[in-house]
Each structure stands twice: as C-alpha cells, then as structure tokens.
Amino acid sequence: MGFKPRSRREALIYELCVRLGYCNELTAQELADELGSQKIVEMVLVSEGLDPVRTDRKLREPVACMLDDWLFDPRGRGVRSGLPR
C-alpha cells in the first residue's frame, strides 16, 4: 500500500524525499504559507545540512518548482489534487 497524503504540505514533503532525496525532519505544520516560497526553500536546504546562501541554483530550483507546484501555483498539482493545504 502506498503513501496517502492528507494535505498538500504532506504531499510536498513526500515528493521532496522520493524525487529529490531531501528526506528531512520537516513537518507539514512548519511549512506555513505566510513564510513564502523563498523561506521554505531555505528551510528545506538547512534541514539537509546545506548553506542556503552558498547553495547554487541547480539545487534550489527543483525545490522551488516543486514547492510552487504544490502550494502556491493556482493551477498546480496542489490545487488539482483536491487536498487541503
């Protein structure tokens, strides 16, 4: 049986782990919308032991794209999934 997310944030955390290998200890509650995309990307990088200032675009972009798709894009997978935030 596969993972069944209860929210868009849980789906994002799962996908960050499965697709990008960022399997960290972040929780769905920590990924509040008011933090904004940039801050959440930095939280993911820091939780992986990376310095967000020195991390190049090649590592930041996939995280930012996935984050926007699940949480902020009005036509993204998050909205299409029908899951609550």
Outline the structure in words.
- This protein has one domain.
- 53% of the residues lie in helices and 0% in strands.
- The longest helix has 16 residues.
- The mean pLDDT is 89.
- Major sheet: none
Instruction: Please give the count of helices.
Output: 4
Quaternary state reads single chain
Low-confidence stretches: none
Report how far the terminal alpha carbons are from each other.
23 Å
Shape: globular
- The number of strands is 0
Mean pLDDT comes to 89
Question: Brief overview, please?
Answer:
The chain has helices at 8-20, 37-47, 57-72, 77-81.
Question: What key phrases describe this protein's structure?
Answer:
85 residues; mainly alpha; 4 helices
Helix/strand layout:
Blueprint: H1 8-20, H2 37-47, H3 57-72, H4 77-81
Helix pairs in contact: 1-3, 2-3
